[in-house]
Design brief:
Blueprint (H helix, E strand, L loop, with lengths): L3 E12 L5 E9 L13 E6 L6 H15 L5 E4 L5 H10 L4 E3 L4 H13 L9 H4 L12 E2 L8 E8 L11 E5 L13 E8 L3 H8 L4 E7 L10 E6 L3 E7 L3 H16 L3 E7 L7 E8 L3
Parallel strand pairs: 1-4, 4-5, 6-12, 8-14, 9-13
Antiparallel strand pairs: 1-2, 2-3, 7-9, 10-11, 11-12, 13-14
Helix pairs in contact: 1-2
Length: about 290
């Protein structure tokens, strides 16, 4: 099983003796399934001064993290585009693939916890600086899916949260998920999702598995605002793909219900791919969270 890490390297709301912001490197392990114990995931943190913000410092931190974890990641994900060059270089120096991604959910939860519980306890904590947003995503113009992997049909559905306890037993060719326990959802909370049906289900799932899937959302048509909203798949940190056009009143209603269900489930939802509605297996299944 592949080991994936999530990484952030950025300034924190803590000032040093020269009134310069302290920087921090955070590294954590991505859970491999819904059955992963969140407390078992590897975590690493390291403060550094603003004068040491460079790829060499980051490379050394990743090496130290590998020594502590006694493992080597197959890939490192990061969300902060302004640190792209530095992170990519540090990872390249260590021959570790890196990817800008919205699938840094464990990292995001950890950052929130540190902002609330850790940084305020540090000498030099600057409450005013802590009020600024730290995680932002901007979507690019939506692209059509490649013709070769277009689905023939699709459906908006939902599963109760308790159903995902059995996900490790499902037959799935390509997948990624995360434990739901940290979110405090009730067992009966509906988790909304979309199922795409395609005669080329496995190639479609294989192609999507390389996209760093972020979330599915209903968005207005930015290229032509006179047209109906669309169902989009957002990937990487700013890619967007058109899954479906909501071109009837019924589809618009379903889209609205999908977005409301996402709000009720803290943004958690899923994307699935099957050969047909009668299939008992999945070519692809991804659990996601809309952080927006």
């Amino acid at each position: 099983m592949k080991t994936i890490w999530e990484l952030d390297f950025y300034s924190r709301p803590i000032l040093d003796e020269n009134k310069k912001k302290i920087w921090e490197i955070l590294i954590c392990e991505t859970p491999s399934s819904v059955a992963t114990d969140p407390d078992s995931l590897f975590r690493y943190s390291r403060f550094c001064s603003s004068s040491k913000v460079n790829s060499g410092e980051l490379r050394d931190a990743i090496l130290e993290a590998m020594e502590q974890s006694q493992s080597r990641p197959n890939k490192i994900r990061f969300f902060r585009r302004q640190m792209n060059n530095m992170i990519v270089k540090a990872c390249k120096d260590l021959a570790i693939p890196s990817a800008p991604s919205r699938r840094t959910l464990t990292l995001y939860q950890w950052m929130q916890q540190r902002e609330n519980e850790v940084y305020p306890q540090e000498a030099g904590y600057d409450a005013k600086a802590a009020s600024s947003p730290s995680v932002q995503y901007e979507s690019a113009i939506a692209q059509p899916l490649p013709d070769a992997i277009l689905g023939q049909k699709w459906a908006l559905v939902s599963l109760e949260a308790q159903a995902f306890a059995e996900m490790p037993e499902w037959e799935i060719a390509f997948q990624e998920s995360f434990p739901l326990s940290p979110f405090g959802l009730s067992q009966t909370t509906p988790i909304p999702g979309i199922i795409l049906f395609s005669s080329r289900a496995v190639p479609m799932a294989g192609w999507m598995s390389g996209l760093e899937l972020g979330c599915v959302k209903v968005m207005e048509n930015r290229e032509d605002r006179s047209k109906n909203p669309r169902l989009l798949l957002e990937t990487g940190v700013n890619e967007s793909w058109i899954l479906a056009n909501l071109n009837t009143s019924q589809l618009l209603k379903e889209g609205e219900s999908f977005e409301q269900a996402k709000k009720n489930s803290q943004g958690i939802h899923f994307l699935a791919i099957q050969a047909n509605p009668e299939s008992e297996s999945f070519a692809g299944f991804w659990l996601m969270q809309d952080l927006s």
